[in-house]
From TrEMBL, chain A:
Designated name of the protein: Pyruvate dehydrogenase E1 component subunit alpha
Cofactor names: thiamine diphosphate
CDD domains (alphabetical): TPP_E1_PDC_ADC_BCADC (cd02000)
GO BP term (any one): pyruvate decarboxylation to acetyl-CoA
Dehydrogenase E1 component domain boundaries: 24-314
Pfam families: E1_dh
UniProt keywords, alphabetically: Oxidoreductase, Pyruvate, Thiamine pyrophosphate
Gene3D superfamilies on file: 3.40.50.970
Organism: Cryobacterium shii
Summary of subunit composition and partner proteins: Heterodimer of an alpha and a beta chain.
EC number: 1.2.4.1
GO molecular function terms noted in the UniProt entry: magnesium ion binding; pyruvate dehydrogenase (acetyl-transferring) activity
Coiled-coil segments on the chain, per record: none
Amino acid sequence: MIDEFTARRVTADPERARHLLLQMLRARRFEEKCVELYSAAKIRGFMHVYIGEEAVAAGVMAALEPEDAVLAIYREHGHALLRGVLAGAILAEMYGYEQGCCRGRGGSMHLFDAATRFYGGNAIVAGGLPLAVGLALADKMAGRDRVTVCFFGEGAVAEGEFHESINLAALWQLPVLFRCENNLYAMGTALGRSESQTDIALKAAAYEVPAWPVDGMDVLAVEETARRAVHMVRAGGGPHFLELSTYRFRAHSMYDPERYREKAEVATWLERDPIDLLRAALEAAGELPAKTWAAVQGEVDSEVQAAVEFAKAGTPEPVEDLTRFLYTERGPK
Amino acid sequence: MKTTYREAMRAAIREAMTRDDRVFLMGEDVGRYGGCFAVSLGLLEEFGPERIRDTPLSESGFVGAGIGAALGGMRPIVEIMTVNFSLLALDQIMNNAATLRHMSGGQFSVPLVIRMTPGAGRQLAAQHSHSLEGWYAHIPGLRILTPSTLEDARGMLWTALQDPDPVLIFEHGSLYNVAGEIADDAGAVDIDTAAVRRSGRDVSLITYGGTLQITLDAAEPLAQEGIDAEVFDLRTLRPLDDAAILATVARTHRAVIVDEGWRSGSISAEVSARITESAFFDLDAPVGRVCSVDSAAALRQAPGTGRTPLRRPRRRRGPGGGGHPWVTS
C-alpha cells in the first residue's frame, strides 16, 4: 500500500528516486556478497554489515560535493561504496590485499580513501566525531565552504566524545552535519537500557544544534532532509544534526546469535525494507517497468561480480612492507 | 640575550604563528588566562581568538579536533594543560593520531604538535605528578620530545611543526622559570639526535627533560670524588638515538639512567635493555637506574631536605609567572 505522499514524491522526480534505488541496491548486493565470502572464509576478522540501513547512507551521499568530507564507523562498507570508493578496492581491502583501498591494512572496519575524502572507518565508538570537528574547523579557518558529514550509531551518544564534539561544533559554529543512525541497539544493548533520555535529537538540541528525527527507512525523506541540512551547513548555519530511525536486519557482526531481540521485532522491521518500499512506490507510479528493474539489477550484479574478480586476483602486502607508512617516508638526508 | 624556558617556548610559538598561517594554538586557558603556565601570555592580543583558541575542558574533543584540523591541512599546536589530563585524550592520541597514516596505507598524515607538562616535585599529590612521557614513547607512530634546555625550548617546536607526523612535546613543569643566556638568533634545532651535555670518561649518566639539570648538578660532587661523569641528554624518547647511546657507553663503559618515570616498564628500562642488547661487552658494570618509586605520589616534602622531591635549586621567578597557581617560584 503506497501512501499518497510517497506516490507524489516519486512522481515528482522519478529519475532521482531510481538513482536512490540503484544506490541502495548497490550497497545491499555488495554486502550480501560479503556475507557469502565471509562464510566461505575468504574474508576474516570482524565484519559488520549495513543491510537494512542503506537508505541512510544513500540519502546523504547524493547531497554532497566531491570536496566534502565523510567519516563513518566500523559498519561502513555502504558509506564507502556510495561515497565513490571502488567496490573492488573495498573488497580487496576486506581480503587483506595490497590492492585494497588501504593496502589491506585496515580491512572491513577501516576503509579510507583520500580521493573521495573518506576518513574512515573508525572502530572506536564515537572516536570519529572529534575528527569531524577538526576537519570542519580547518575548513572554517581556511574560509572554504566544505561540509563534513559524520555518521555514527545511537550507541555513540553514551560516550563523552559525542557530547564534547557536539558542544565544540556548536560553540565554534562549524560546518558539520552529524548523522546519528539509530538502529535501536548498541551491539546487543537496546537504547532504553543504556540511555535515560532516549530522544537523541533532543540531546543535540540541548547544545543549541538544530536537530531533527527522520524516518531512516524512507530514502526520499532522508535525501530531502539531508539536502536541506547540507545546504544550511554549507551556507554558514553551523552544525546540524539528523537522527535517522533505522534497523539492522542482520546480526551485529558475524558472531552474534541475536539473543537480545525478538524475531517478531525483526520481522516487523523487514516489512519496512527501504529498497522494497521505494521499489514498490516506483512500480505503483509506473516509473519502474520490469525491463528497467532488470537492467538496474544487472548493472549492480556486474559491479559486484567485477569487484569479486578484482579482489580474488589480489595479493597480500609483502611482510617487509608492513611497517611502512607508520611515519612519513623521507628521502635520504 | 637573557631568557627563560617559558619565554623561549613563547618565542617559539610566536615565530611559528608568524611564519605559517596554518599554525594555531588550541587548549584550555591558552587565551584569556594566558596559559596555565603563562607560556602563551600575551599571544591572544597578538594573534586573536581564532588562532589562540580557548577550549572547554574536553580533552578528547579538542585533541581529536586538532587531529582533524591537521588532516584538513592546518598545523595545530594543541596544549594539554598537564600530562595528567592527557589520559582523557588517550583514545585520540593512540587510536587516531598514531595510527591513521599506517592504517590508511599512507594516504593520510597527521602533522600535529601536542604540548603538555609532566612531572612531580611541586607538592601536587598523586593526580598531578605523573611522568608519562616514557609511556607515550611506547606508542609507534608518535615522536616524543623532551626539551631540557633553553635552546631546545626555543628550537624544537618549529622542527616539530615541519614533521608530517604527530609530535608530543613534554615540558617539565619545573623548567618554566629556568633562566639563562641564549643566542640572539637561536632558532630551530634538530629533533633526531641525543646530546652530550657534559663530557666525561668514567660513567654515562643518561637522562632527559626535567632531570637533566639535577643530573648535571650531581656530576659536580662526583668530580670532587674523582669520578668523571658524562651527562647524556636523550632529547627525543621516540625514536631513541641508539647510535649516540651506544657511543657514550663505549666511551665510559658504565651507565646510570636517571628517569623521573616509575621504574617498572619505564623508558629507563628500555634504554637499559638496548644497552644490554647491543653494548653488553662494552660494560664494566651492570647498568644502574635512578627512577621514581613504583608508587602514587604523596603530597609531603622529601624527608630531611625541607624540599619537595626533585625540586630544582636556583629557580627564579619569570615574567608572567606571578599569580599562576602552578608556577613554582
